[in-house]
Amino acid sequence: MENLLYISAFIVALAIVLFVVYLAAVLVAVKRTLNSVAGTLENVQEQMKGITAETEELLNRTNRLAEDIEVKTAKLNPVFDGLKETGGTISELNNSIRNLAARFSAATAVAENEKAVQAAKWVTSFVRASRKRKDT
User: Fold this and answer.
1) CB-hemisphere CA count at 13 Å for 105?
2) What pLDDT is recorded for position 24?
3) Cα-trace Rg, the chain
4) Which DSSP category does 24 fall into?
């Protein structure tokens, strides 16, 4: 019976040793996994620093570009105002030319009417003179 006690103590000791070995193997695997995760996080952190720097540079360029566009737009406003005024002036000039052409056409029509009246008077006079000759 004593032998049975030694055998059971040996089995318990062997079980504890196997448990410790298995636990050590698991802890080594966990350590490798955590080291890998730590390395990956360091790489991500370095990449994020680079992305942050590039993003800041892009934001600065965008701000400078927006300011430049504002300055150039402000410089172009007088040009557009001038073009608007020029368009108004051209429109007024077109209206004046139309009015002048209408007046000229009316004056020409009046002159032509006067010529036609004058011609009619001459024709009438000629016809009267011709009749008087025939009658005599």
Assistant:
1) 6
2) 96
3) 56
4) H
Number of helices (H) and strands (E) in the chain: give both, helices first. Answer: 1, 0
Query: Can you give 14-77 as a three-state secondary structure string?
Result: HHHHHHHHHHHHHHHHHHHHHHHHHHHHHHHHHHHHHHHHHHHHHHHHHHHHHHHHHHHHHHHH
The CA angle 59-40-32, to the nearest 5 degrees, is 170
- Judge whether residue 117 has pLDDT over 80: no
Mean pLDDT for the stretch of residues 55-81: 90
Per residue in 55-74, is it b (16+ CB within 10 Å) or e — as a string? eeeeeeeeeeeeeeeeeeee
Residue 71 amino acid letter: V
Residue 16 pLDDT grade (very low, low, confident, very high; cuts 50, 70, 90): very high
